[in-house]
Structures are given as C-alpha cells and as structure tokens.
Amino acid sequence: MAIRDLEQLLANLSVRRRPGRWCFVSGAATPVGMTVAATVVEDEGTTAVIAVDDAEDLGIEPGFVAAWLTLEVNSALDAVGLTAAVATALADAGISCNVLAGYHHDHLLVPEGRAADAVAAIAALRAQTASTEGIAPNR
C-alpha cells in the first residue's frame, strides 16, 4: 500500500542503484533496439534518458553522466515532501539531483562519481528521521 505520511516514508526509505550509466538527450531519434528508460515531453522537444553507450553510438557526447537511484519506498503519488527532503539532503551534501517520478517509485539521476555519497546521504536521512521521530521502519 502506498505511503503518504512523510515520516513513515523517510523512516522506510531505501535506495537501489539501477545498473548502467545514464544520460539525457534531446532531439535525437533512438534507433530500434536502444532502450529509452524515460521520456519527458517539453515545449522545446522530447528529452530521453538513455544509456551512455547508446548515446555514444548515436554520436552524442553525454554532457552529464548519471547513476540512476530508485527510492524503494512505496510512496503515494500525492504524498507531500519526500522529494523535497531527499533533494535537500543531497543538496546539503553538494550532490546535484534530477528527479523522475514513476507510478510506484521516485527515481534520482545523480552524478555517477557521487552515487555512493548520494546513497550514504539518503541512508543518513532515513536514520535521522527514524531516531528523531521514534518510528520503527516497516519490514
């Protein structure tokens, strides 16, 4: 069941790194066989998130190489504050973060070289919330 309560969300927060190296591309057609992991349609065109290797195969030099982190807590789409809390924790650690929301989970694209730091910052946020609020994580 999807969780709406922010303290429960943070106390139950875990992160999984999706394999691969990811980048954003815009305006490039992706040939059959390439996986488009996410798309966002904007007024200026469609942005796609694809594997770095696929971008390079298209002749695109990725400007931002990212690790893809999935917040494994089952957050409700109308929950308030989860992405703000996580983005703040990452910002406090000096880590940029691009957020994509899916139906079941939120996804973060962070600089590849800072992925371990991002996971640690999110784990610290979980621990701090659980100890401050006295909330036992769901198991």
Describe the structure.
The chain is an alpha+beta fold. The protein has a single domain (6-133), classed as VC0802-like, CATH 3.30.2130.10. 30% of the residues lie in helices and 30% in strands. The chain is built from four helices and six strands. The chain has helices at residues 6-11, 52-57, 82-92, 115-133; strands at residues 15-26, 36-42, 45-51, 66-71, 98-101, 106-111. The protein starts with 5 loop residues before the first helix and ends in a 6-residue tail after the last helix.
Topology summary:
Layout (H helix, E strand, L loop, with lengths): L5 H6 L3 E12 L9 E7 L2 E7 H6 L8 E6 L10 H11 L5 E4 L4 E6 L3 H19 L6
Antiparallel strand pairs: 1-3, 1-4, 2-3, 4-6, 5-6
Helix pairs in contact: 3-4
